[in-house]
Amino acid sequence: MELLEPDILLQLLIGGLLAGALYALLACGLNLVFGVMRVINLAHAELMLIGAFGSYVLYAAFGIHPLISLFLIVPVMFVAGYYFQRVLIERVVGRPMLDSLLATYGVAIILINIGLLVFTADFKSVPVLQGSFAIGDIPISEPRAVAGLISVALTVGVYLFLERTRLGKAIRAVSEHAQVASICGIDVRKIRMLAFGLASAMAAAAGVMLSVIYSFWPGSGIDFIQKCFAIIIIGGMGNFVGAFYGGVLLGVVESFVGAFVSTQWGEAMAYLLLVAVLLIRPTGLKGAARA
Amino acid sequence: MPSIANGLRSNGAWAGAALVAAAAVAPLALNEYYQSFLLQVFLVIALAQAWNLISGMTGYVSFGHSAFFGLGAYAGALFLTWGFPWWLAVFHGAVVAAVLSLPLGMLTLRLRGPYFAIAMLGLNEIGRIVATLWVDLTNGGSGITLAPSLLPSLEMEYFTTLMLALGATLLVAFIHRNRFGLELRAIREDEEAAEMVGVNTTLNKVVAFVLSAVIPGAVGAVSVMYTSFINPNSAFAHTRNVEMIVVVLFGGSGTVWGPIVGAAIIMILREMLWAEFPEVHLALLGVLLVVVVLYLPGGIVSLARRDRRRRPDIAKAGETPP
Questions:
Q1: Cβ(B75)–Cβ(B221) under 8 Å?
Q2: Rounded to an integer, what distance in angstroms lies between the CA atom of residue B246 and that of residue B120?
Q3: pLDDT by residue (tens digit) across B107-156?
């Protein structure tokens, strides 16, 4: 019963919000790609793990702090994603959605197994931030606070980019209606490359943040892609802001279910929510009519 | 090539009968290594045909069929330890998979193409979590080791898997030719149009789904007897999905021969080239999947067809983006 004390509840809420911020950063990237090109990237969580392992390698080999490697990994992954779109994803754009599911599934399998070859199946972590601090009576874990706040900052940054800049406006225009955008003189192909680069960078940033708070191995992606799907179905497929709220919501639900029932059930919540939402609204909760 | 292909097609039944006859007498001539190898090829053929039945024919891509394998494997292991004869344990593996797939199919098949795929993706994980947590029944992560005295001989396992591969193939061939198969393909091409001309799409999809779950159920049960050990990770292995999907797409999805050809080529390659490195094997399967989706949507079998330009079979259930 001591779980019901207000301090504990508040602690669970904050923990959930911070974890949810990381999910949100990851899911917003996935939704950005879906919005712009109607491609469901099953390898999105593996892009995240590239960020996580990048952070691990830079720390283990050169002692570079993850918050610094963030500035190295994110630009590299932006460029990588930009060209990856050009080489591969562009070929499945406009084809039936299952083609893109299967092709990106193939990419995920390739990345996972290269990861296993290079890093083996052992769990890795980057234990730089440890300890906790207190706000009032509520203890907050330091790595989670840092990861959560940076995730929020990055997501808000990308949101402002999409809302306030000409380029962001072009991305949103393609997301609304690719053909009309093209008629208006927007280079749709370039925009798609930009969007995939941006999504890869966001995924990698989420990966660096992940490396600070969790341990991970090359097969960790499946848990996260599952969470992402739950989030974007709840928030509306292709809806950037919806994915943010969906991510935060999932983080909080997991936190409470994990504390009151069991951690395994907390982990299973993503799937149960996903299935529940799909069954009530077979096309997702909102904004999914055009999906 | 076309003439050979047509010859093969018109004589497909004869070619099949000859293959089965050869496989049936093969144990007389082969040592245990080759028997084991063929047994695994048969297992993969049966699994691939099961996936072909739901995903190849209806276009509803399942990323979670390994869950039915896991269910069947646990059912087989448990019924064996409870004193049932091995063949009855295999039968129960199929029954358990069927019983659970019915409500599951009725729920998930309401979802269209991509949403169904997303919903199925987590199924295998859920199976693994349940098998790990339900310690009283499954002995949790430590798994169950089957006593050798309970197990059938290698020859028996060989013939059982051969029968499963044959049965699954005949089922696909039979469905391919009758009205049910036609209706499934109509769903794949255009579900709404199929509905409008009076196809009971829900019933068809659910029947195909249950049939496609029964086969992995039985295969899982035999497989656990072959390996004589089971734990949550070996039963609910995500790599099994990869194998099913790649074998079918590589061979030619929605066709009778595709999964057989795909299984034979991929298993031989695995055995000869990269048996030592499972990660390399899987990574190359990933490469194969990407290449096939991009450049050879009809699979190997379509190379031998005259109408190879026509984009056949897989991936029509999703909507085309604007």
A1: yes
A2: 17
A3: 888 887 778 888 888 888 888 888 888 888 888 878 888 888 878 888 88
pLDDT of B47 > 80? The answer is yes
| Top-level class of domain B2-303 | mainly alpha
Cα-to-chain-centroid distance, residue B50 = 4
Provide the residue ranges of all domains of chain B, joining segments of one domain with +: 2-303
A218: left (phi over 0), alpha (psi -120 to 50) or beta: alpha
Distance from CA of B45 to the nearest CA of A (A): 20
At A96, which amino acid appears?
P
Query: What stretch of H or E contains A133?
Result: strand A132-135
The pTM assigned to this predicted structure is 0.84
pLDDT digits (tens, 9 = 90+) for B260-286: 999 998 888 888 876 677 788 888 888
Q: A-chain residues within 8 Å CB-CB of B286?
A: 106-110, 113
Per-residue pLDDT, averaged over A247-257, amounts to 91
User: What distance in Å separates the CA atoms of residue B173 and residue B170, rounded to the nearest whole number?
Assistant: 5
Residues 6+ apart with CB under 8 A from B256: B12, B169, B172, B173, B176
Nearest to B111 among A102, A264, A282 (CB): A282
Residues of chain B contacting A106 with CB distance shorter than 8 Å: 286-290, 293
Phi (first) and psi of residue B233, to 5 degrees: -75, -35
CATH 1.10.287 fits A2-280, yes or no: no
Does residue A277 sit at the B interface (CB-CB below 8 Å)? Answer: no
Contacts of B243 (CB under 8 A, 6+ apart): B44, B47, B48, B266, B285
| Complex ipTM tops 0.90 | no
Is residue A40 left, alpha or beta, with left meaning phi > 0 and alpha meaning psi from -120 to 50?
Answer: beta
The CB density around residue B250, as the number of other CB atoms within 10 Å, is 25
Q: How far apart are the first and last CA of chain A?
A: 44
Spatial CA neighbour of B226 closest among B35, B60, B18: B35
